[in-house]
Amino acid sequence: MSNSKFIQTKESVTNSKAYKSTSLKKEIVESVAEETPIALIYNGISHVVMMGTPSNLEDFALGFSITEGIVNKISDIYSIEIENKDNGIELNIEIASENFANLKEIRRNLTGRTGCGLCGAESLSQAMRIPKIQTSNYQFDSKNILKALEIFSKNQILQKKTGATHASALCQNNGIIKITREDVGRHIALDKLIGASIKHEVTEDSFIITSSRASYEMIQKIAYLNLKLLVAISAPTGLAIRLAENLGITLIGFARESRYTIYSHNERIIE
Length: 271
Description:
CATH superfamily of the largest domain: Cytidine Deaminase, domain 2
Number of domains: 2
Number of helices: 8
Number of strands: 15
Strand content: 25-35%
CATH topology of the largest domain: Cytidine Deaminase, domain 2
CATH architecture of the largest domain: 3-Layer(aba) Sandwich
Distance between the termini: 60 Å
Mean pLDDT: 89
Strand order of the largest sheet: 10-9-11-12-13-14
């Protein structure tokens, strides 16, 4: 069977027939999130294949390239071309020759994972790379974090339609959400958000909300944006807490519209 018979590459949401347990003979139509192989190709050489939602792919290419240390700044990327194939999507990314030389040292093997974060790193030193420490004393208003959380739940359009996606959002200390990105993979949602954010000015009062748990590599990724606060809907891991503490990042978990738990640098949150 050709892959083209079952892989959709253009739509983030499609319809599928289904049956409820309460009425097994009655066919219904359900909205489902699409999951597509996405190949990131640098200067003609395939680097990694991720399973993700086929939307905001330029943002994904930018965010992944920055947070994985493939490039240091947006100007290191000369072009991004998106090409739909029968069996997936190719992101052809042209980067500076110096960055491409460094990429050969990073070699990874991530094929087939859904939004995988560190899987496939060749060495412990690659997996455990430490971003720069955040030194700002900027403080965030607790009331406005809760305000952003309330808006965040309303902004998850794909999640409302399908129940199958994660989201990440760039927020400001006044509680306003500037950008939201969604994907079936939590790391890809965050990469898409970072890619969209670096096209604009990310100010000191910015922070990120994620619908998932807070793991080590998510702390790594937000550190590349020099952000000081990550708010996760689910729990953090122990390693994420220790890294956030060491980097000067405030980490919040179990965030709801009326409460949350602070795991590191609580002095940055004010009533």
